[in-house]
Write a structure and sequence with these properties.
By secondary structure, the chain is mostly beta strands. The protein contains no helices and 11 strands. The chain is globular.
């Protein structure tokens, strides 16, 4: 079983940057594919980025491509989301999620694919 704790959120001006981190406790972090999702007030939770258990395969939603980078460190049991060129539309509660898998390269874009979730970290981008 994995426990996930997100950090790194905050208030930033448009055009600024933030780095979100998700620390995982429990065994076998390297066995999990990971994802970042976000949910703005009044909206459904949406996919942001995901990464395979090996860290070698990634995917992003179109609106963040070229601005966000997901990276997984299996030695430190962390997955990070580097965000640059932030805009007010990026304002949301950001969640980290984990999905156990035997495949080193599979990735998941849907919330239903993930078993474990963190509590979220708030990102607010001021215009």
């Amino acid at each position: 079983q994995a426990q996930l704790i997100e950090s790194g959120g905050g208030l930033v001006q448009a055009g600024g940057s933030l780095r979100l981190s998700c620390a995982a406790s429990g065994r076998s972090f390297s066995a999990y594919a990971m994802g970042w999702f976000r949910q703005a007030p009044g909206k459904e939770r949406e996919f942001v980025a995901c990464i395979s258990r090996s860290g070698g395969v990634t995917a992003y939603t179109d609106s963040v491509k070229g601005r966000f980078t997901i990276a997984k460190d299996n030695d430190k049991n962390t997955v990070n989301l580097q965000m640059i060129s932030l805009n007010p539309e990026d304002t949301a509660l950001y969640y980290c999620a984990a999905a156990g898998t035997h495949s080193a390269s599979i990735i998941y874009r849907t919330p239903a694919s993930y078993t474990y979730w963190g509590q979220g970290t708030q990102v607010t981008v001021a215009s």
